[in-house]
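Hi there. Long-time user, first ticket. I'm pasting a complex I've been working with (about 439 residues overall). I'd like to know whether the download I got is complete or cut off, because the file seemed smaller than I expected. Thanks.
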Amino acid sequence: MKKFLQDLETELRKNNLSDEEISEIIADHEEMIETAMNEGLTDAELEKKFGNPKEVAEELSQFSEKKEKGRENKKMKRQEFTGIEEGYHINIGLINEDIEFQTNEDGKIIIEYSGKRDLEDYTIEFNNNELVLKTPKKREIGSFFGHEKNQFTISLPQGLKIGNFILKEINGDIELAKHESESLQLDTKNGDLKLSEFKTNTLKLNTINGDVNMEDILCKTISVSQISGDLQMKKVTAIGDFDAHSVSGDMNFENVNCDEFTMKTVSGDVNAYEFYPTSVSLNSVSGDITITNTDMSKTIDVKHERSVSGDIKIRIKK
Amino acid sequence: MNSQFKRGIIELCVLKELIPEDMYGYLIINSLSEHLNVNENTIYPILRRLTKEGYFTTYLKESNSGAPRKYYHITKKGFDYYLSLRDEWDDFIGGVYVILNKGGKKNEEIFARFRDRVEEE
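Hi, the file is complete. Here it is re-exported in full:
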């Protein structure tokens, strides 16, 4: 098995791994081979168990630190756009990328990307005052169990109002804060969403499994639909109506104000604390809906209330 | 089998093996290869990567034969990762079985239907 270790070292060097990595990997293998030999494995058995040094080396080189070139496999790329005018639109559709939004005072859109792909693989354009960011056309086969950890950081001009903001994401997490737009449409599937300090006219959110956290939101109308993820809302004010749908996810509201509130839930529970809509229509199959308020001067007009087996309670607590 | 897919499944198995007890590399390989056709080539890189990601920590412990062995210990982060992979796997395999079991579980039944259909044409 000495040959295995020698070959492994040669292959690791070929793959440009750092000396530190190589000595660690070799030590690990010496230990494993020694253990195997102590157990009395024959050469043929050993060979079968340890396989091909070339394959291990290639596999290891995919995430190991390289000599000289450093962390080149973790690419960081950047793209900037200028000439952004108020009311610019944003249209983003991604699959496996986390997205974090930031602000800058230079009136630019700055996109930074770190991940395994090339930034050129993505569609990134700014035309007719619209930012378009779309996922690569050639998808990696088997990305289902893949470990693509791709991250976009998108910095938007501070104080410049956005027009229509459309954001679709499948698996990545999203953090969006401190902006204002005409409309905001968010479609997420498995990733989590954190939305805070945001002002918009119409807010539409569709989500499947991801958890959603909203705080400090001001809007005209809001509509939220979720399947099994949970939703947390804090300090949200809608001047107009608020529509909410849930299948099995729970919803928690705290300090939420709106005009007419329409809730439909199958089995998800709704828990609201300091929740002051002017009127409510509540529909539940088996989920409980509880509203607990302390301000006695604000009354809630119950337009409609129906439940099969869930409890609906609206109470004032001193 | 698609290698990335296979890797994901083995990753799930490695994580699971380390939940009840800390183990050293060779033991993990042995334990998995009892049930799956895998060898060191597949498992060692996974151990190393998951350690780098902070899902495992390692420590050295003397063995009976004297030479110290590197033990792998799963972290809370690793356990959470296991849960998310497990969910993903259950979802996926559940869906696969729904498709495969449509119109009967037994190959004979499926073949009988297929034969009838072909004969009708």
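A couple of notes from our side: Chain B has a mean pLDDT of 89. Chain B touches chain A through 32 residues (CB under 8 Å).
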